[in-house]
Amino acid sequence: MITGYQSAQRRLVKIMELTSYSSAALVAAVGLTLVPLSSDAAAINFERDIFPILKENCVSCHRQAYKEGGKLKKPKGKLRLDGRRGLIQGGENGKIIVTGKPEKSSIYTSTTLDKDDPDIMPQKGDLLTKKQTELIRNWIVQGARLGEWKGNEKGFTDTPTPTGGQPDKKLTTLDRLAKTVSPLPANTLNSARAKGVYTHALAQGNPLLYASFLGGAPETDDGDLNALTSLRNHITHLDLSRTKITDSGLRAAAGMPRLTQLDLHSTAVTDKGIAALAQLRVLSSLNLYGTKVSDKAVPTLARMQSLKNIYVWQTGITKKGASELRKKLPNATIHFETTLGQTSPTRAKGTDGKATAAGKTRKSMKRFDANSCCAKAAAKGSRCQHACCKAAARDKKVCTKCNPGKK
User: Which tops the pLDDT comparison, 351 or 307?
Assistant: First the structure.
């Protein structure tokens, strides 16, 4: 998310481009110091600065399996931090590093929880110091680069498929897409960023990109999407939520062959815009919450067989439309709520009569206040990660701080 400071920087750069003022004069006039948004100044070296912290505090529990006292000791959570591949691959809960986003990187967030939180890391020995956690945070902000460091790469059983061999069936769609494109040159990324685009790689060494706009909702419209043209073949996650884009702007998204997740919630997009997305062949997640999409878009959505998650609550799509969509896309989860807490007719029970994950999600949403952080997380099939909400959940209670209506 762009800060007020970064927004001011962006406006200042535009002023400099449109006027004859020197950068020094403008900086003096508004009292700002221009700092490049991506700078290698004081770059953090993983092998020198970060790995010693992991080795001292984390690797003893997250290392290659070994025998001790005749028993096999496996890495906790199937997570290894003793080598490059382990850091990139993550553990049983998925990846632990989201490049450029420490708040979404568990390698950082798990070390900053309350000291009494059972999920805090490390769970043995002393907690990390503020200096150490900030070092990890800044390393992620700078790109989470590993340099030439390899560490221990032994012990992985799923070896990559040799060139020319049969495709590895264990590879995800993103893995396969990543193999079909080369990383973009730095000057292309920097050029897009200069136009207000925020990007980061999905993982270290992965050429696929997450993209959004630094200006945020008040400043982003259809014209700004032209800045994505040079990145179109590499964008796989695109967040346009709460922006001023319209149906016309969606033509830019429609031209992204590797787009798998598209967030359009709280925009002015209508059925006409959805029609432009029909050509996307690998789109698996589409968030239409709070848009003007109606039942007229159902036939188009039904033809998009790659969709696995569609968020259509608080749209013009009716219960009948959602039910029809569920029939046409039996392998997808249709997240349908006209209001938070209302029972949806879609996917409430499986073929065996038991409640499915989506049905359980709707049931759990009734426990929370509408629009609370807990309700929003439940709507997406997850749990709220706020410390107070997690503590309440452990006691099988609802956090009344975030859900005062449940006191």
Answer: 307
Per-residue b or e along 133-156, where b marks 16 or more CB atoms closer than 10 Å to that residue's CB: bebbbbbbbbbbbbeeeebbeeee
d(CA 238, CA 273): 15
Global confidence as pTM: 0.47
Distance CA 110, CA 105 (A): 8
CB 104 within 8 A of CB 145: no
The amino acid present at 399, given as its one-letter code, is C
Distance, in Å, from the CA atom of 205 to the CA atom of 152, rounded to the nearest integer, reads: 18
Provide Rg for the chain, Cα atoms.
23
Q: How much is the average pLDDT of 163-176?
A: 58
* Among candidate residues 233, 241, 213, the one with its CA nearest the CA of residue 225: 213
Query: Rounded to an integer, what distance in angstroms lies between the CA atom of residue 362 and that of residue 369?
Result: 13
**C-alpha distances out from residue 363 to 159, 191, 249, 325, Å:** 42, 47, 36, 21
* Percent residues over pLDDT 70 in the chain: 76
Joined together, the tokens standing for residue 386 give: 């706020």
pLDDT tens profile 97-120? 988 888 889 999 999 988 877 778
